[in-house]
Automatic annotation (TrEMBL):
In the C-terminal section; belongs to the PPC synthetase family. Residues 10-219 form the DNA/pantothenate metabolism flavoprotein C-terminal domain. This is Coenzyme A biosynthesis bifunctional protein CoaBC. Its EC number is 4.1.1.36, 6.3.2.5. Coiled coil: none annotated. Residues 15-224 are annotated as: Phosphopantothenate--cysteine ligase. Its cofactor is Mg(2+); FMN. The chain holds residues 177 to 400 of 400 of the full protein. Keywords: Decarboxylase, Flavoprotein, FMN, Ligase, Lyase, Magnesium, Metal-binding, Multifunctional enzyme.
């Protein structure tokens, strides 16, 4: 079998990938963030470009190098990411949302640096828009792929997200498993599909998983 990477299966297809974590400002010098490295999303962008796609990578703050041939848009907050994704969505064939998106933002970030005074500091936060849910609502012919990082009930929670967000595939990561998650080059994933089938994979390199994800996306496109 030929590798997904070299057969130009996605030639002419516009693929959007989101990667990394979003950050929400507390004041001009501080933020609330998460441990996402961006590696999974960058690997997917690389696999998609190797498959011949026209790839735009919408990335949170990361140190990673942009894969050759990939267009990159840098964003900081969840709302920045939503704006970037939404503006490209109508034209896209595939959207893969690997980013770790901040669910809440600080309600009123301070204009000036917060000085230390009281012994406790309370930050009020409000919910961010769910970017992927919004894409699912206005989906036309796009193939939508989501991610879910879970520590328990991986299949159950993953299936709920797949349905609620109107996805064509969900990559559920068991982040409690050894070799999965944020800081490592490997992942432990189960792919969930709307027909109720799933594919469980052992621990593997993030680039190998990315190639499988791109291969399954190609199969979904060829079926529809
Ligand atoms: N996502 C998004 N916008 C958000 C939150 C999540 O687009 N505001 C996307 C993520 O990029 C991911 C998928 O939704 O592809 C699932 O994210 P996850 O955090 O696992 O699910 P949530 O719906 O946020 O639910 P919870 O965090 O409560 O488990
Ligand atoms: Ca979340």
């Amino acid at each position: 079998e030929m590798k997904a990477c070299c057969t130009a299966q996605l030639k002419g297809k516009k693929v959007i990938v989101t990667a990394g974590g979003t950050r929400e400002a507390i004041d001009p010098v501080r933020f609330i963030g998460n441990h996402s490295s961006g590696r999974m999303g960058f690997a997917i962008a690389k696999a998609a470009v190797l498959a011949g796609a026209d790839v735009t990578l919408i990335s949170g703050v990361t140190n990673l190098e942009t894969p050759l041939g990939v267009k990159r848009i840098d964003v900081v907050s969840t709302r920045d990411m939503k704006q970037a994704v939404d503006s490209l969505y109508d034209d896209a064939d595939v959207v893969i949302k690997a980013a770790a998106v901040a669910d809440y933002r600080v309600q009123t970030p301070a204009k000036d640096k917060i000085k230390k005074s009281e012994d406790t500091l309370i930050l009020s936060m409000e919910k961010n828009p769910d970017i992927l849910y919004g894409l699912g609502q206005r989906k036309k012919n796009q193939i939508l792929v989501g991610f879910a990082a879970e520590t328990t009930h991986v299949i159950q929670y993953g299936t709920e997200k797949l349905k609620k967000k109107n996805l064509d595939m969900l990559v559920a990561n068991d982040v409690s498993a050894a070799g999965a998650g944020f800081k490592v080059n490997t992942n432990v994933a189960t792919l969930l599909f709307p027909d109720g089938t799933n594919e469980k994979f052992d621990i593997m390199d993030k680039f190998d998983l990315a190639a499988i994800i791109i291969d399954r996306v190609t199969k979904i496109i060829n079926k529809s």
